[in-house]
Write a structure and sequence with these properties.
The chain has 389 residues and is an alpha/beta fold. It contains 10 helices and 20 strands. Helix 9 crosses helix 10. The chain starts with a strand and ends with a strand.
């Protein structure tokens, strides 16, 4: 089949050659008759080859680059990319049976997500290009990994930017229902067809383990969701209280605590902002506090408002943190940069009249690899700080 050619501006070509995988619509100078979802050849204003890419005729991200080489992109090429991504996860299966098998741009498979939950795979095809190849991806995943079931969780808003409908359902095998997964010895329930994201949040997996190594005494886990941080640190703590505004999340957390026999953990349904104010006013003190909120900054325009929210919860946490205590504080907002987030923690510490040490800077787990040259692949930041005065 003939591959259409799309011409891009000098700026677009330079962006690609510098290592980014996206070329925006504003840098497409000539798209010809290339249909949305097509594999295309990309050339610069002088006709020089730039790369091969998936084209979208709806999104502001018009081109998602697959390679800078003049190579054939066929079924076996895709198989090799999937195998390479899986190979880079070697060893993780000894730690957890739930992790990200393919991380889109981070694995040079832009707009394709594949998560593993035991013998169930969950797929997201987030652009016109990967959506058009979905049937092939399912076939390759069956051939390579022999899963019992493959679920699609294409019920995410980003697909609307591609002109794609939102849907969730089965692509292969029988519906998995609620599954039990294990991460670093802690048992959880996950629902690939109905839970958050693709069934659970997988990107904090290694941060849960790091938190356990610092946690002690009386602990508070804010925005606990399914209790992952709380249950990982429970063996190191005297007591752990988990807070979340969602009644469904609290019910799941309690069930997970029962699975693990965690008798020193309790979960309470509460608005975390209100609860932190009340706990501070009551003079409560904690040796370990975890803040893992949802993304406050959904876009660049919301960063200022998000910063106020992050500062407030960190200020209140630092006021309640015992001397020698640790704060594990996170942001999953891409637009909240690492330096800005650290600056907010410094301001919160100053306002709380506390001296704190920065013990660790962490990011998302290694099954969510950051591709150098594509800053959008780095979104999760986690700081571990200790109060010394």
């Amino acid at each position: 089949m003939e591959i259409k050619t799309i011409s891009v501006t000098r700026r677009g070509a330079e962006r690609a050659r510098a290592g980014h995988l996206w070329i925006y619509r504003s840098d497409v100078s000539e798209a010809g008759k290339a249909p949305g979802g097509a594999l295309v050849s990309v050339r610069d204003a002088h006709g020089r080859f730039v790369g091969r890419a998936l084209y979208s005729d709806r999104s502001e991200i018009a081109l998602r680059l697959l390679t800078l080489r003049e190579e054939t992109i066929d079924r076996e090429w895709w198989r090799a990319r999937l195998r390479a991504a899986a190979g880079r996860r070697k060893g993780i299966e000894c730690e957890a049976d739930a992790y990200r098998l393919v991380y889109s741009e981070g694995d040079l498979l832009p707009s394709l997500i594949v998560d593993r939950y035991g013998d169930c795979l969950v797929v997201q095809t987030l652009s016109q290009g990967t959506e058009s190849l979905k049937e092939m991806f399912v076939e390759l995943l069956v051939e390579e990994f022999a899963p019992r079931s493959i679920v699609e969780r294409n019920d995410v808003r980003v697909r609307a930017l591609e002109g794609l409908e939102m849907r969730a359902g089965m692509l292969h095998g029988d519906a998995p229902g609620v599954l039990e997964i294990v991460q670093h010895g802690v048992r959880f329930l996950a629902a690939p067809l109905g839970g958050q994201k693709t069934g659970a949040f997988l990107d904090q997996r290694e941060n849960h383990v790091a938190a356990r190594s610092y946690a002690h005494g009386r602990a508070l886990d804010c925005f606990t969701f399914n209790g992952a941080f709380a249950l990982h640190i429970a063996p190191a703590c005297e007591s752990v209280t988990g807070l979340d505004i969602s009644a469904e999340a609290i019910a799941a957390s309690r069930h997970n605590a029962e699975l693990n026999g965690a008798a020193n953990v309790e979960f309470r349904e509460a608005n975390v902002f209100d609860a932190l104010r009340e706990l501070e006013s009551a003079g409560e003190r904690f040796d370990t506090i975890i803040l893992d909120p949802p993304a406050f900054a959904k876009n660049r325009a919301s960063v200022r408002a998000a910063a106020r929210g992050y500062k407030e919860i960190n200020l209140r946490a630092l006021k309640m943190l015992a001397t020698g205590g640790v704060l594990i504080t996170c942001t999953c907002s891409y637009h909240m940069t690492g330096p800005l987030f650290q600056e907010l923690i410094a301001e919160a510490a100053s306002d709380a009249h506390r001296r704190v040490q920065l013990v660790e800077r962490r990011i998302q787990s290694r099954d969510h690899p950051v591709l150098v040259g594509v800053p959008e692949t780095l979104y999760l930041k986690c700081l571990i700080v200790r109060a010394i005065e």
